[in-house]
Design brief:
homodimer, 235 residues, alpha/beta, Arc Repressor Mutant, subunit A, seven-stranded mixed sheet, two-stranded antiparallel sheet, 40% helix, globular
Chain lengths: 235, 235
Amino acid sequence: MTARSSAVSARDIPEATVARLPVYLRALTALAEDGTVTCSSQELASAAGVNSAKLRKDLSYLGSYGTRGVGYDVAYLRYQIARQIGVTQDWPVVIVGIGNLGQALANYSGFRSRGFRVVALLDADPSRHQERIAGVAVRPFGDLDAIVAEHGVAIGVVATPAEAAQEVADRLVDAGIRSILNFAPTVLAVPAGVDVRKVDLSIELQILAYHEQRKSPQGDSSPTPAIAPIQESAS
Amino acid sequence: MTARSSAVSARDIPEATVARLPVYLRALTALAEDGTVTCSSQELASAAGVNSAKLRKDLSYLGSYGTRGVGYDVAYLRYQIARQIGVTQDWPVVIVGIGNLGQALANYSGFRSRGFRVVALLDADPSRHQERIAGVAVRPFGDLDAIVAEHGVAIGVVATPAEAAQEVADRLVDAGIRSILNFAPTVLAVPAGVDVRKVDLSIELQILAYHEQRKSPQGDSSPTPAIAPIQESAS
């Protein structure tokens, strides 16, 4: 097994493949939980919602080609992908902003099961500082530096209103955090070397709408325009 | 402009392209809000985080090729993509489950701005039925059929705990809903003809972790294994 562990350099993996690795990991976890020991590339591709040629190409970047006639070892491939992503290690995370979304994220079981451990919830509102959410204390934003130093926090989650998000991001960067997950509906400016990923909760809804539109009797006609053609106003 | 409006049949658009259309739409909306009138494929590709060859290929499925030396008309392309996705029409949506996540979704401005209108919030808990969240009344789950009939709801959002999600999905399908967005951490079984998309809030966090791991001094070593190799236990 040690020989197979020598993955190719991470720098060789295209960004689009990186974005699919968590999807493969989720599919493999579901297969493992169902007791599946080996799977074909077709089965795994279908579970992950990609075509099998793309899956095989993606997995080849990890040096994982399966075994002809047998397929992939589910448990091993799962470990291999988890290791490549980095979720075999423990990631201390802080969540800033404990409105409904911040609380939902603090309670979200899918973070912990992927190695993301919420070490602190930070909020500007002093009246919230006595609370515990999902077992984690709510602390003043001013404690950020101490928390980052204590826990080695590398990832910050911004769940504040849009108005506060940039200032929060600036403070996270000042505290040494170089990876930010932004749920606030605004674009954050950060220095080079800091990664920001923005979650848009409407993306999946839009993909559903695309397919729903094609199922509907009205086809792709637009009975109630919500976005009018605005070419005229651009002059 | 009418001649350019004749998009190719939606059935010709690959699923991976469909999944990127909302990302292009978001990038175009940001460009339009900045007052940008035309943009090159490189600019748009960069704003959307894809390479420009892929962008041009994707847009060619919409029959949109830009103008050589000028690029794409931002407002028109935005309308064209919105129309292709279906978000130029109004989509009545119900949200089931008003815990923290359901409330966060009810308050999420990104739904309304893309044409998704939350017409009802449904919850099993009678003590919540007097509440209004973001101006929308919380109603008993038993009102589902009447609400679907009244508003022509086509999309249901499941934001319940995992244990309740399958029963809720069954009821949504019985009420005639054929598109379900599932935030509950469970896999839903639905009949053929019903689309389910599952939101995994940890996917973006995993992509950040991938890059963070490569920035860290410890490289890709795994000091604290959160997922151990489990090949042995699969026998």
